[in-house]
Every structure is written in C-alpha cells, then in structure tokens.
Design a protein that fits this description.
5 strands; alpha+beta; 87 residues; 5-stranded mixed β-sheet
Length: 87
C-alpha cells in the first residue's frame, strides 16, 4: 500500500507549535495513522473541497491530493475557532 506524505503549511506549523505538548503528541499519532489511508480518517467538509480530522476538541483541516499521494495540512486549531476565516 502506498503511504501518503503529510505536509504542513507554514501557518499550520505555527498553529501546531502553539498547542500544548500533549495535544501535539495526539495530533502526531493521528496523522501517522492517516498516512496509510487518509480517506478513512478524514471527513469531507460540506460544500468545500478540503477535509477535517478530529482529535478531541481540535481539528485538522487539510487538502488530500490523491494523484500526488499527499495530505496538505492548511489549518490546525480548536473546534470553536478553526472553521472561522477558512479561505
């Protein structure tokens, strides 16, 4: 099985580093699981082309490019704030 590579945008990397270490660890583990089959773990956002991954109260917003086998993480944050200002 082909493994997808996970790429964090500069914005997502900054948001990730601001999170508490225990949340960072949980997000890392969840993204590692999603590398094998991201469509099993990520859920499509309604009326959008990107996907979300739930990790407790936090969400990871990403674009999945199947042809390039990449998961491009664009935003990471608390569920109350992460959906605001999605471009």
């Amino acid at each position: 099985m082909t493994v997808f590579s996970v790429i964090l945008s500069i914005k997502a990397k900054g948001e990730f580093l601001k999170l508490p270490s225990e949340i960072q660890t949980r997000i890392k583990k969840k993204l590692e699981l999603a590398q094998e089959n991201p469509f099993r773990h990520f859920e499509r956002l309604k009326c959008r082309i990107d996907y979300k991954l739930r990790v407790g109260d936090y969400r990871i917003i990403a674009d999945i490019v199947n042809s390039q086998k990449t998961v491009e993480v664009t935003k990471i944050g608390h569920r109350k704030k992460v959906y605001k200002n999605l471009d």
